[in-house]
Amino acid sequence: PFEVLVIGGGPAGVAASVYTARKGIRTGIAAERFGGQLNDTLGIENLPGTEYTEGPKLVADLERQVAAHDAIDAMNLAQASRLVPAREAGDWHEVHMENGAVLKARSLILSTGARWRALGVPGEQELRNKGVAYCPHCDGPLFKGKRVAVIGGGNSGVEAAIDLAGIVGHVTLIEYDGQLRADEVLQKKLRSLSNVDILTSAQTTRIAGKDKVSGLTWKHRESGQEHDLELEGVFVQIGLVPNTEWLKDSGIALSRHGEIEVDARGGTSVPGVFAAGDCTTTPYKQIVVAMGEGSKAALSAFDYLIRNESA
Ligand code: FAD
């Protein structure tokens, strides 16, 4: 058993484990994929103190920092499937793993992050990785010189369109709303690109293709008129979903979007269970925010442990 068990090995979970280890606390960290979303990130330029780094490099740095602490027991490719909270403060919480193992700890830090949201139209699932993509940094180069659509006009969609415009032949950005929602500076950049078309009030209704994507259909939301676009790739950029389905019957309070509700100290609705990063209600899903929240949750777990002797 662990004193603190961290579930999730992204920036939030790693920061938490380093903080608890430095308090001399025996810490476990279990992650389905160590590094989390950083694995899919290319350039990072907004991490204070680090002018420029890349996702995979930051993952390697975090891995090294975790390995340097004897107090941390790291478990990669370890997926949690169920949480059974302690009956009373100071008692053991149980985390049931997909492989059948049961991990016990007196305090938990949940940092399971988030993932891309799917569009939910015919053709999307069938053509996933056959032209339907979610990560422009990972898959953009596969569409060199080709025609693609980016669905979603928020920051991630517009960033993706700008990024892809430099690699692919042509980009059509499709936004459901009447206007783009991305920061003005990004929109300005997007409009300056000669190989980008922008469609607004446009609802994507179908992705077409047999073995690979050959086009999509969109409906103008005011006129109701349907249009077909011929293209080879579709990048879906319509937001993030928290990885909290496994907490459904745990008694941990979730928001209506499925985010773990946390207080100012990272505390959840269950004593001794803390949470941090993109899986929580804390706004601004960013690396430095996740790291800060992870550190905070770790200090709160420490505080909990010294106040609640083992039952
Ligand atoms: P995540 O990074 O999502 O990590 C979650 C961890 O939990 C992973 O290890 C995952 O495998 C694990 N996990 C999930 N479910 C389970 C389970 N059931 N059991 C066990 N483990 C589980 N932010 C910036 O600040 N700057 C940027 O430039 C930037 N660029 C980005 C580019 C892209 C393409 C993406 C996708 C994100 C970007 N972000 C950026 C956002 C940033 O990556 C996230 O805010 C940050 O990674 C959140 O950290 P996290 O630890 O909360 O979650």
Automatic annotation (TrEMBL):
Gene for this chain: ahpF
Top-rank lineage group of the source organism: Bacteria
Keywords, in A-Z order: Disulfide bond, FAD, Flavoprotein, NAD, NADP, Oxidoreductase, Redox-active center
Family of the protein in this entry: Belongs to the class-II pyridine nucleotide-disulfide oxidoreductase family.
Keyword Cell wall biogenesis/degradation: no
Full-length numbering of the shown residues: 212 to 522 of 529
Boundaries of every FAD/NAD(P)-binding domain copy: 3-294
Quaternary organization: Homodimer.
Cofactor note: Binds 1 FAD per subunit.
Cysteines joined through disulfide linkages: 135-138
UniProt protein name: Thioredoxin reductase
GO biological process: response to reactive oxygen species
Residue ranges crossing the lipid bilayer per the database entry: none
GO-annotated molecular function: flavin adenine dinucleotide binding; NAD binding; NADH-dependent peroxiredoxin activity; oxidoreductase activity, acting on a sulfur group of donors, NAD(P) as acceptor
Native source organism of the sequence: Aurantiacibacter spongiae
Gene Ontology CC: cytosol; protein-containing complex
Cofactor(s) listed in the protein's UniProt record: FAD
Chain positions recorded as NAD(+) binding sites: 147-161
Residues binding FAD: 3-18, 268-278
